[in-house]
UniProtKB/TrEMBL annotation:
It comes from Rhizobium wenxiniae. Keywords: Methyltransferase, Transferase. Belongs to the class IV-like SAM-binding methyltransferase superfamily. RNA methyltransferase TrmH family. This is TrmH family RNA methyltransferase. PANTHER family: RRNA METHYLTRANSFERASE 3, RRNA METHYLTRANSFERASE 3, MITOCHONDRIAL. The lineage of its organism: Bacteria, Pseudomonadati, Pseudomonadota, Alphaproteobacteria, Hyphomicrobiales. SMART domains: SpoU_sub_bind (SM00967). InterPro entries: Alpha/beta_knot_MTases, MRM3-like_sub_bind, Ribosomal_eL30-like_sf, rRNA_Methyltransferase, SpoU_MeTrfase, SpoU_subst-bd, tRNA_m1G_MTases_N. Residues 46-122 form the RNA 2-O ribose methyltransferase substrate binding domain. CDD domains: SpoU-like_rRNA-MTase. The keyword Chloroplast does not apply. It comes from the Bacteria. It holds the Pfam family SpoU_methylase.
Length: 286
């Protein structure tokens, strides 16, 4: 965790660049962050909203650029965030609403946008203890699902999200929006199926896989004796055989009604809150 950027005596904003033209090269560069390739190449991503930007800074994330609407100029918190950005060697842009709409692709954009450095945790660095829960997602494709899962995993007290195989990008605008800030709180790992299976053997975790053909009721699995990895399948095709067979348990959430299956994010939430039921209390939050 870094020092509190709101501490008294922080430097005044040194330099703010005013931008009103959509043709400005910095704006073009930032707009290109909507492409995964450009995001990956630059190693940065965009988060919208003053609260998210403040939360990220307080959690020690590196801000590269702060963009705010002219109407936000002079607001104390915006000025403090701008001061912190400049102190870190970042750029501060004061822009028209038209520019902000174009950057965020929204008609009613947030007043503040931050461009942050991406952060990935390495699979080798995940060494969960027995009361920890990790979510592993096989080829998750939908950005809204991924964002909702990151947010839910954070709320349930999970330690990380592992993206196995070709997954949607956790740093896309849509995913970051759906995380509601939890992308800054929860480490994200990406790996291949083989890397995941190798780590599963080495790390002594209990992998509880979910499958529509699972014979075991998810409420009867053991979530207490070892660190748990909840393994979820792809939205269209479900979990492939090699991942399902390597799991310690394959469970199913009982259903009634016409629906074939639950939405991936909903199923993940049901699993997470069951796996961590013995660890969650109302007193966790004051
Ligand atoms: N057609 C896919 C299939 O045959 O598996 C449906 C996939 S479902 C939309 C996405 C994922 O959510 C599944 O792979 C599984 O991980 C989880 N899931 C959804 N409903 C479930 C249930 N009733 N029991 C266990 N897992 C479930």
């Amino acid at each position: 965790m870094t020092d509190d950027f709101r501490k008294p005596g922080a430097r005044k904003v040194g330099q703010v660049k005013e931008v009103t033209s959509l043709a400005n090269p910095i704006i073009k560069y930032i707009k290109a962050l909507s492409n995964k390739k450009d995001r990956e190449a630059a190693g940065i991503f965009m988060a919208e909203g003053l609260k998210l930007v403040i939360d990220a800074l307080e959690l020690g994330w590196e801000i590269r650029t702060l963009i705010y609407a002219k109407a936000a100029k002079g607001k104390p918190l915006v000025e403090q965030v701008a001061t912190r950005t400049v102190a870190n060697g970042g750029l501060v842009l004061e822009v028209s609403e038209k520019v902000l709409s174009s950057v965020t692709r929204r008609d009613n954009p947030q007043m503040v946008v931050g461009i942050f450095e991406q952060r990935w945790k390495r699979l080798e660095d995940l060494a969960p203890e027995s009361d920890e829960t990790i979510v592993a997602l096989d080829r998750v494709r939908d950005p809204g699902n991924l964002g909702t899962i990151i947010r839910t995993a954070d709320a349930a007290g999970a330690s990380a999200v592992i993206l196995v195989g070709d997954c949607t990008d956790p740093f896309s605008l849509e995913t970051v929006r759906a995380t509601m800030g939890s992308v800054f709180a929860l480490p994200v790992v990406k790996c291949s199926v083989d890397e995941f299976l190798g780590w599963q053997k080495r790390s002594g975790v209990n992998v509880v896989a979910t499958h529509l053909a699972g014979a075991v009721d998810y409420r009867t699995a053991d979530y207490k004796s070892k660190p748990v990895v909840i393994l979820m399948g792809n939205e269209q095709s479900g979990l492939p055989d090699n991942l399902a067979k390597a799991a310690n348990r394959t469970v199913r959430i009982p259903q009634q009604g016409l629906a074939d299956s639950l939405n991936l994010a909903v199923a993940t939430a049901v699993m997470l809150f069951e796996a961590r039921r013995h660890l969650l209390t109302l007193e966790d939050r004051t």
